[in-house]
């Protein structure tokens, strides 16, 4: 069986790294580093790990963390916009913050808020924070995310970025076994160019896309 990129479908993929748990493969076309399917956890194993994450709505540390995406996002969107938080997790802290700023929020999460009716409309903005690295089939989810955004709308992504192989070798981000898709600036620029989006990077882990 030929291994192909889970994001751009290229078969030009090469071994990137191996650690004691898994193998990592990199796509030559889009630079995504991904974990082959045989190393993926089952949905039940993933849910058990997510249930241990404690992101309390009123937690000040977590709010400070989320403000790194909220601050730049606020400069992209109009007051009282309609937004969707895709992959909100067990405690919808980001939606809570954005509602407090006057926006109207919907939430979706495959485990914690699985009502798919919210995926049948389009939004002024979509947020996807610390989620995209969990996607087993990022090509599919990327299409869903971009189609959820209205023309001139914004997609806000937060994920830690691959810098190089040396840093990857002792990167804590990959020790979370639910993380299977590792993006870099190169990967996001590839997607932006392919799909006709503008892209801007903020800090180490916030990426904003705008639709034409
Ligand atoms: Zn690729
Ligand atoms: Zn994560």
Automatic annotation (TrEMBL):
<dbReference type="GO" id="GO:0032259">
    <property type="term" value="P:methylation"/>
</dbReference>
<keyword id="KW-0808">Transferase</keyword>
<keyword id="KW-0489">Methyltransferase</keyword>
<dbReference type="Pfam" id="PF13489">
    <property type="entry name" value="Methyltransf_23"/>
</dbReference>
<dbReference type="GO" id="GO:0008168">
    <property type="term" value="F:methyltransferase activity"/>
</dbReference>
<dbReference type="InterPro" id="IPR029063">
    <property type="entry name" value="SAM-dependent_MTases_sf"/>
</dbReference>
<protein>
    <submittedName>
        <fullName>Methyltransferase</fullName>
    </submittedName>
</protein>
